[in-house]
Records
---
Amino acid sequence: MPNNKKTIFSGVTPSGNLHIGNYFGAIKQWVEMQNAGEYQNIFCVVDEHAITTLQEPAKLRSKILEVFTLYLALGLDPEKSIIFVQSSVSEHSELNWILSTITPVGELERMTQFKDKSQKQKSILAGLLNYPVLQAADILLYHTNTVPVGEDQLQHIELTRAIAKKFNNAFGQIFPLPEPFINKEAKRIMGLDDPAKKMSKSAENSNNYIALLDSPEIIREKIKSAVTDSGSEIKYDAENKPAISNLLLIYSLFSKKPISELEKEYAGKNYSVLKHDLAEVIIEGLSPVQKKYQELSANPDYIKKVLRQGAAKAKAIASQTMTEVRSKIGFLELSV
Ligand code: TYM
């Protein structure tokens, strides 16, 4: 990879079912940026982040493989991008420790995701608090310039910048300050069961999201049971009609038709007509991805090869950064 290119880095936590919010909010941009050929592209399945909530080991292992395989099915290309699993590159946890020694606990306690998730833990685990430091390590290890993510990750990237600044000031310039990249149209897809909250992998009610691997029957059922707003007008008005606006947005993202065109097409029709057509548009949109996913899953040797290659390429960059970091902070330089 030529290293004069700017670097993009991003990842998904393999802690639930990848859904259309993850795709439109993040992965779609990754594929477009990859194909534009202007960046060094690095994409990670961030399994070390998944274990901040208790995971059943066999399930975690299959989720990691599922998310990795979905990355490929969605268009990430190992010839154009470094695609790997976080836990196969131990430098992530090594840098995490070092960065945690310069990160104030108060900063971590005010993270919105920490506040939400810690409410669900009886005794709050240190890993959950430290989660954004590990995220900063992920990003900084690769001298990342741009991080394509959904809106909910902005606070974590802001913190990453603060940590990078602090490190550079204390020990000398190493890390560029990463910028978030947000797709404004799809920065926050809302839950189908509650349009006041974002669509989420960790939602208890699976009717909250459309998973990328949901079958046509499940998609029809979920869209049918999606909440709607009072009244009957099909109109985009995020404040007063949040549920229908979210459905129109999803429809527009899948069909590539502007929302204004959909409003005209559905003027005078009722919600059930919109829902029926939306389900079919989603099924059609996901069908090639699901087909590709099945093909790839039938070839575990190929997946293993790509996993190994990705890990080796990521490790080569990460270990170089760690050599620099260790030297800056004053650790001994022994080659053993
Ligand atoms: P995660 O796994 O929750 O989400 C993965 C990506 O999907 C985006 N996203 C959404 N976008 C629009 N609408 C939604 N409803 C929606 N839900 C999720 C997220 O913004 C994200 O871009 N902490 C991160 C993973 C991570 C990471 C990193 C990301 C770890 N290290 C380094 C970037 C760089 C997370 O849990 O994302």
Note: DSSP finds 13 helices and five strands in the chain.
---
Amino acid sequence: MSTTALPEQLTARMGNLGTETAFEVLARANALAATGKSIINLGIGQPDFKTPEHIVEAGIRALRDGHHGYTPAAGIPELRTAVARDLNARHRVEIDPGQVMIMPGGKPTMFFACLMYGEAGTEILYPNPGFPIYESAIKFSGATAVPYPLQEETGFAFSATEVLSKITDKTRLLILNTPANPTGGTVPKSEIDALVAGLVDKPHVTVLSDEIYSRMLYDGREHVTLLSYPEIADRVILLDGWSKTYAMTGWRLGYSVWPNDVFPHVEKLAVNNHSCVNAPTQFAGLAALEGPQDAVDEMVEAFDGRRRVIVSELNQIPGFRCVQPGGAFYAFPNIEGTGLDAKTLQTRLLEDAGVAVIAGTSFGAYGEGYLRFSYANSTENIQMAIARIKEMLA
Ligand code: PLP
């Protein structure tokens, strides 16, 4: 998190806003590469694949067909309907397209949800280590950020008992993320069942379920969406999108599903904030959902192969120990055995070995003792990176 001074003209609230260190590491890695240094980037949280051609074509065609004006704030009706159909096909949940909000990426949903549910005197629960924007957006809203720890022993799955024990009368929102960034952890259905059972008598708690990695699961795991529990479905906000699944991070396209009575309010926020998502991107998103899914399957298969390689290689580095991640494209090894803290090791790996990774502490205090490796890079580069790390630590 950068420690830039706060000009006194700005609100105190601005001092509560955090950031995402991955972007800073990326900038430093690029700066080093520009000086001629060889850098292997295992820090970046985006697929190294191209957006499939038919999706790119659909975006270009939309522009040529004249789709360059405003669209409805909630998104073009065809896309909202396609999202509802996709959720039904993948998870057998019945969603009214009127609940689907097309967003400029996944992030705005978390920011909006925190602004809508958080204020001074309230509490919002979030995973730690977890995606850093959760804590940042919660603090910005004025709410108290209450972390629940994710532990290596459970493969970084949350414990329903622990999460439930942190809910108080002041809790307004509970943020969940599975498969998870930065750990690659997944949560067994039994644990989600237990959490939902405990939430039934806590109607003051809404759940924001970040399922942006829902298509990236390994070893036969199946995704369980929080929307599939009718007993709490009227207070679940689902966050998903195209960024990771279709290698579309730079297009800025995501969606969320909102409770019916809350929907007009998020729509109002969108009107105030961005009017609508850019039109050709929405048509590209439509082609992604309605077109062939082979490219997604191939990408996930490639990630699976690299996952096996990186985890096995990481476990051979003296001082490292890495559990097998069940989803996403991250490995989160414990590095305590090296005797170095996460930030020191991150810096030394980048500056001395030319390997960009992210310190676990960038994802919260409970990330100390860990590093995040993204395996959105070739197997060859992954192996070269591990060889460099071994050499540096020897
Ligand atoms: N949620 C999680 C858990 C993520 O890791 C990310 C991106 O890294 C996002 C949401 C944001 O996705 P987007 O780029 O679509 O805003």
Note: The domain at 69-290 is CATH 3.40.640.10 (Aspartate Aminotransferase; domain 2).
